[in-house]
Amino acid sequence: MGIVVCTADLFPEHLERLKAAGHEVRLFDRAGHDSLSSILATVDALICLLTDPIGSELLNQALHLQIVANVAVGCENIDIAAAERKGIVVTNTPDVLTESTADHTFALLLSAARRIAEADVAVRNGEFPSWGLQQPLTGIDVHGTTLGIVGMGRIGAAVARRGHRGFDMPVLYHSRTRKPDLESELDAVQVSFEQLLEQSDFVCVHVPLTPETRHLFGADAFARMKPTAVLINTARGAVLDEAALASALKRRVIAGAGLDVFEQEPAVYPELLDLRERVVLTPHLGSATEETRVAMADIAVRNVLAVLSSQPPLTPVTV
Ligand code: NAP
Ligand code: GLV
Questions:
Q1: Which residue among 16, 144, 158, 254 is buried most deeply as judged by most CB within 10 Å?
Q2: Nearest ligand, CA 284
Q3: Could you tell which of 47, 70, 73 is best to mutate to test the pocket of ligand 2, judged by most ligand atoms within 8 Å of the CB?
Q4: CA-to-CA dists, residue 319 to 76, 191, 271, angstroms
Q5: pLDDT for the residue numbered 34
Q6: What CATH class does 3-95+290-308 carry?
Q7: Where are the domains of the chain?
Q8: Which is the closest atom of ligand 2 to the Cα of 261?
């Protein structure tokens, strides 16, 4: 039986399941005296969050560690190559969060286009403009406009389905590999990154954060976009250059943005906070529904139970 340390705030049922399998569960106290590296020296499994940097130095302290189970699909917080060298399994939580994150992406898209966040604040402040043809909070149409997906993976495809089926949107996509099935299902068209920027009304970002995608969207990319276009990012903050984005929004190079992720979370680039018109910000809530968070914890625990009983992990991540 093993020792499992959790930095993640697992649900009671999941803690019980680990204990019922005979494992000792230790909850990592972030405010406590012990560092994660000293704790890792003696444990067999780590269940962690995307906010925990698990680098090679930390992994080198881990003398018995068999698995790092990240409760997230994105794993850029873990040095996967270093883990592989040490024979430590890394797992993530794909699929179960796809639809919830796609819902949130579309919520941001609609909210930015129809200025829902601005309108909510106005009503609460007693600013209820009289009905007129030229309302101060006039938005832009979503239905029938062109949706551009950057990174046509699980979440990208789920967002594309919402756009195509629900809002009659032609879908363009840019991804590393062609997706013939999605092209037949959604009439989606693969284009270059530049073509996608130039032709899309809504650009949704769904690539993982990698050395290739870091600051994929900078001043040049924003300059290529339509001045009426809205950018939605529920992937990772650093895929965008936030300073360049704030400048593009301020100068109306693009029309709006919906952002769930930020380069230096929990900090938000200050100039983005000042922008309100067609700009909607949420604090990394993509997968944050009750059902999905339980499902994510469930996969992480099942991965740990499998690896600690010498079974293959359900959702391994490799370099
Ligand atoms: P996924 O299925 O792996 O999809 C990612 C897609 O991006 C793949 O289709 C991939 O390539 C494509 N891609 C990778 N590098 C690329 C590049 N350089 N240029 C163009 N396309 C590239 O992952 P997912 O489950 O959809 O999740 C996507 C990301 O969303 C995660 O990595 C995570 O960072 C983020 N996320 C955020 C939240 C949130 O709470 N906001 C929740 C869940 C996930 P191919 O074309 O080869 O398929
Ligand atoms: C959340 O951001 C995830 O990667 O699951």
A1: 254
A2: 1
A3: 73
A4: 11, 27, 36
A5: 85
A6: alpha beta
A7: 3-95+290-308, 98-281
A8: 2
Q: Which fold has domain 98-281?
A: Rossmann fold (3.40.50)
| Identity of residue 200 | S
Equal fold, 3-95+290-308 vs 98-281: yes
Residue found by looking up tokens 């979370």 in the block: 265
Task: Quickly count: other Cβ atoms within 10 Å of residue 233's Cβ.
Answer: 25
Distance (Å) from CA 74 to ligand 1 centroid: 8
The pick from 51, 175, 289 for probing ligand 1's pocket by mutation, whose C-beta has the most ligand atoms within 8 angstroms, reads 175
Strand partners, 157: none
- Helix (H) / strand (E) element for 196: namely helix 193-199
Phi, psi values for residue 20, rounded to 5°: -60, -25
Cα pseudo-dihedral 135, 141, 143, 147, rounded to 10: -160
Residue 107 phi/psi, 5° resolution? -60, -45
What pLDDT is stored for residue 31 in this prediction? 84
pLDDT digits (tens, 9 = 90+) for 225-283: 999 999 999 999 999 999 999 999 999 999 999 999 999 999 999 999 999 999 999 99
Q: Which ligand has the nearest atom to the CA of 300?
A: 2
- Counting ligand 1 atoms within 8 A of each CB, the residue from 75, 155, 191, 195 with the most, and so the one to mutate, is 155
DSSP, collapsed to helix, strand or coil, labels residue 245 as: helix
Q: 175: CA distance to ligand 1 center in Å?
A: 9
Query: What is the per-residue pLDDT across 231-243, written as a single tens digit (0 to 9) for each?
Result: 999 999 999 999 9
| Contact (Cβ atoms closer than 8 angstroms) between residue 140 and residue 115 | no
Q: Is the CB of 286 under 6 A from ligand 2?
A: yes
CA of 226 to the centre of ligand 2 (A): 29
Cβ-count burial of 63 within 10 angstroms (0-12 exposed, 13-18 middle, 19+ buried)?
Answer: exposed
